[in-house]
Amino acid sequence: MPPKKIPIRTCVVCREKAGKRALVRIVRTEHGIMVDPGGKMNGRGAYLCERPECWERAMNTDVLAKALKTTLTSEDRERLSARQRQAAP
Ligand SMILES: [Zn+2]
After folding, report:
1. Which of 9, 27, 31, 78 is the most exposed place for a label (fewest CB within 10 A)?
2. Distance of CA 82 from the midpoint of ligand 1 (Å)
């Protein structure tokens, strides 16, 4: 029996590779950029690791926007920072 493959994804900011469940999917929908906790939403997705620096850079640089081929609106940034605050201990 071959070992079960875990899908590997890459954080768009730090380029660190990790199993899908260790990363947070961000998806571009018609309503804007959303955090997709289940990884099931339709749309172009990008992955971020849990490092706060990566979320900061995703919000404050265009690296995430480029990965999603869009631009971040202030609402998008607000949603991302809300998710980040929730995740903080
Ligand atoms: Zn990262």
Report:
1. 31
2. 17
